[in-house]
Amino acid sequence: MAAQSETNVHSNESAQSANTTPTASVCGNDPEKGAEPEKAAEKSLANGPAPATPVIGPPPDGGAQAWLVVLGAFSGLFVSFGWINCIGVFQTYYESHQLSTYSTSTVTWITSLETFVMFFCGPIFGTLFDSYGPRNILLLGTFLHVFGLMMASLSTEYYQFILAQGICSPIGASAIFNASVNSVSTWFAQRRAFALGITASGSSLGGVIFPIMVTQLIPKVGFPWAMRICAFLILFMLGIANATLRSRLPHRPKQFDILGFVRPLAELKFALTVAGAFCFFWGMFLPFTFVITQAERYGMSERMAGYLIPILNAARYVLSFGFRFSSNVFFSIFGRTLPGYLADKVGRYNTMVVTTFFSAILVLALWLPARGNIPAIIFSALYGFGSGAFVSLAPACVAQISDLRQVGVRNGTFFAVISFAALTGTPIGGALVPDVLHGDYTHLQIFCGVVMITGACLFVLARGVIGGFKLQKV
């Protein structure tokens, strides 16, 4: 049957966006090869005329409605990925308070489950998005995320933290994350990486604010009320997201097809992209989880170490909007929005390769030998800059090689696969450092750097399959 008109999301988007005829393909073919509308048309004629459906024009790449969607998605990532970005604070707190009798590796299952569940639910919410749009997904996510944190505020036992903070809350965060990212992708083509960069910077701002809130509120109001206050802030931000998030595409219920999540993996370019992301993600969250305890191990005060996570996230955010809150936040112009902006200019895969190699080198060349306060602070700022690009560039890369009408499912497959890296990476790191306050972090840091470099190399191969190995925009 004839495919409906849509702009392609490859490097030749500008040329293809003008094609709005009913037979124009939006399949994820290589940019140079383009679509094959003639074959689709011949098949349509052989099977009889297709039912008339409205023609969808190219994404507007701007306008009031599109930027309101970005605002809503920014708020959505502020409370979803932004909350996940502060897992290092809870890792440290639980080990010294409620769960002090448990080993480091056991406690890390709470924080690793948060990341795993948020991404593993991607295929479910991706399918629901493609079928029904973001509205009901967002409402469900709002309830589950806030309810889970309220229950965590009442928790005292290990299994209670697992259920509330490790399962219920991240299911809601997953719904919010997928509704936000997928909605933005429907409104932008040529400026998609930039728009997703602004969206992803919401998670960095959340990663700055939430750790400071938690560490400052707990001594003043106690752990239960600290969690509740965070939950109320999340509810407020989700009010903005629910009021502004919209999808540009018409959504019709589709039959659930489990093979639909598997088929993209048969495409070499998609498989290499997922493999690269898996390896990079395997190590990416280890500094988030262990940078505080590693710094304390080598003499940093507990008070100063508590600001390393905010510094790390600050290096991913603020100057993308032209503000400068502090010298640490100054790095943020490069964090998430600038890589997205550059990706639209020089190529999304090109930018992904550079930033992933940069992050991996930082781990091995700076974090591994770090033994003082200054190296730990510099590493946190620079690593936030490098790793921050991944979250904004990953959905843009997936959209570049995908049919936009299947972006929800394919993003779901992508994040579901890398969720297993998130699930196992942190416990492996905890096992490599049995005593976090007195042990040696060398093995953890080597593991982190090696798997991230492997991921960067796989992104190079994916780039070569998509656009060749010549210096060009890919």
Automatic annotation (TrEMBL):
Keyword annotations of the record: Membrane, Transmembrane, Transmembrane helix, Transport
Transmembrane residue ranges: 66-94, 106-125, 137-155, 161-181, 193-213, 225-245, 270-292, 304-325, 346-368, 374-401, 413-432, 444-466
Coiled-coil intervals: none
Gene3D superfamilies on file: MFS general substrate transporter like domains
Subcellular location: Membrane
InterPro entries linked to this entry: MFS, MFS_dom, MFS_trans_sf, Proton-linked_MCT
Stretches with biased composition (Basic and acidic residues): 30-42
Domain Major facilitator superfamily (MFS) profile: 68-466
Family annotation (CDD domains): MFS_MCT_SLC16
GO annotations of cellular component type: membrane
Membrane topology: Multi-pass membrane protein
Major localisation: membrane
Biased composition (Polar residues): 1-26
GO molecular function: transmembrane transporter activity
Positions of region (Disordered): 1-57
Source taxon at top rank: Eukaryota
Family per similarity comment: Belongs to the major facilitator superfamily. Monocarboxylate porter (TC 2.A.1.13) family.
Name by which UniProt lists this protein: Major facilitator superfamily (MFS) profile domain-containing protein
Organism: Penicillium olsonii
Phylogenetic placement of the source organism: Eukaryota, Fungi, Dikarya, Ascomycota, Pezizomycotina
